[in-house]
Design brief:
Blueprint: E1 2-6, E2 15-19, E3 29-39, H1 41-50, E4 63-71, E5 83-86, E6 118-122, E7 126-128, H2 135-138, H3 141-155, E8 163-167, H4 171-183, E9 186-191, H5 194-202, E10 207-210, H6 217-224, E11 230-235, H7 242-248, E12 249-257, H8 271-275, E13 279-282, H9 288-300, E14 307-312, H10 316-325, E15 331-335
Parallel strand pairs: 8-9, 8-11, 9-10, 11-12, 12-13, 14-15
Antiparallel strand pairs: 1-2, 3-4, 3-6, 3-15, 4-5, 5-7
Helix pairs in contact: 3-4, 6-7
Length: 336
């Protein structure tokens, strides 16, 4: 079967196409014929580490969807032909997070990912793809969708009457915007691009701020909300946005701490958190249980993920290069 491996061979750009043998499912495992895999910002961070000689030989990309192709013994919940997606943390099925799950993140340091024609995973690591979604759409859900769901819904309890701040128009951001719109919550979107803001308005964003033209977007946000601020923040920027997020949070609001778009290790001044009786919710993707709950919501509300572009398997390196430009709106997908 064909696959990509991370590889630091000079000139490979971090990725090489390989032909390897098709994996066989053991007891409790399922083989999936992968139809589509999607990219996340994380995959750029991982590719950068390959250049330093790390992760050689690992299959990249956490996110993918496909069709069940073969079953190991003792698998009762799936049958050949079922459409499934894999959960980001193979081993986090339900209950609270444990740090031991980190090693099971697909396409990470120690576990192969989805940019391969066939993958074998435990039956417990899969969710059914909602009937209204294509496999290309379903491939966008495991990291970006589940992260937004876990933070805003499972932990953040967002509902009608809330106001959400969305930072940018990438994968996690647009899932957040779609959830808010489906709930009837108000959404504020900040973006580098007027054209992207116009598209965000069409998706239900009601206050749009260009953070290039208006670097003090927190001031503009406060003015637009009559000094109230927002109840929920998808904090995706990190050091470059965190203090402004803190200045934007409403009394009793929640900062969902997720992203590192401007780097790692924000050193925020947390004083305002206390005066506003606000919370920080730290999120690292989510469990199979979160994924299944999100899929029920997507089905109920007939939500389709926003796919910006799809690339053929042979052009996977271009998909990475495109994501790095930051010009995408929503998700970038590789079809197998
Ligand atoms: N904690 C977790 O488990 C977890 C899970 C998923 C993602 N993440 C993190 O969340 C972040 C988003 O991930 P993603 O995959 O959704 O990224 P993505 O699709 O690559 O989105 C990138 C977009 O973010 C926007 N952006 C960049 N810098 C910004 C800034 N300073 N202020 C506001 N927006 C900015 C830009 O949108 P515009 O062009 O519209 O400005 C850019 O196109 C990343 O840092 C990622 O590592 C963390």
């Amino acid at each position: 079967m064909k696959a990509y491996h991370l590889n630091n061979h000079p000139g490979a750009g971090g990725l090489v196409r390989v032909d390897v043998s098709k994996p066989e499912p053991a007891s409790g495992e399922v083989r999936i014929r992968v139809e589509a895999a999607s990219l996340n910002y994380r995959d750029l961070l991982i590719l950068d580490r390959v250049g330093k000689g790390e992760l050689n030989g690992r299959v990249p990309l956490s996110d993918g969807a496909g069709v069940v192709d073969a079953l190991g013994s003792n698998v009762t919940q799936w049958k050949v032909g079922d459409r499934v997606a894999a959960s980001f943390f193979r081993d986090w099925v339900s209950g609270p997070f444990r740090t031991t799950y980190v090693a099971s993140s697909l396409g990470g340091d120690t576990t192969d990912g989805m940019l391969a024609e066939y993958v074998v995973l435990p039956a417990s690591a899969l969710v059914a793809v909602p009937a209204h979604l294509s496999l290309v759409e379903a491939a966008t859900l495991p990291c970006a969708g589940v992260t937004a769901w876990h933070g805003l819904m499972a932990r953040g309890g967002m509902g009608k009457g809330d106001t959400l701040l969305v930072q940018g128009t990438g994968g996690v951001a647009l899932f957040g915007l779609q959830f808010a719109a489906a709930l009837g919550a108000r959404a504020i979107v900040i973006s580098s691009s007027h054209e992207k803001l116009a598209r965000a308005r069409a998706m239900g964003g009601s206050i749009l701020i260009n953070y290039r033209d208006t670097p003090d977007w927190d001031v503009a946000l406060m003015k637009a909300t009559d000094g109230e601020g927002v109840s929920h923040i998808l904090e995706l920027g990190g050091p470059g946005t965190y203090d402004r997020s803190l200045r934007s949070v409403a009394s009793g609001g929640k900062i969902i701490q997720i992203g590192v778009l401007t780097g790692f290790g924000p050193k925020p001044d947390l004083a305002r958190l206390q005066w506003e009786n606000a919370d920080i919710i730290g999120v690292t993707v989510g469990s199979v249980e979160h994924f299944a709950a999100m899929n029920r919501f997507l089905t109920d509300k007939a939500i389709h993920p926003i796919v910006d572009r799809t690339y053929d398997f042979d052009d996977a390196p271009e998909a990475y290069a495109y994501l790095r430009t930051g010009s995408h709106f929503g998700k970038v997908v590789v079809k197998l």
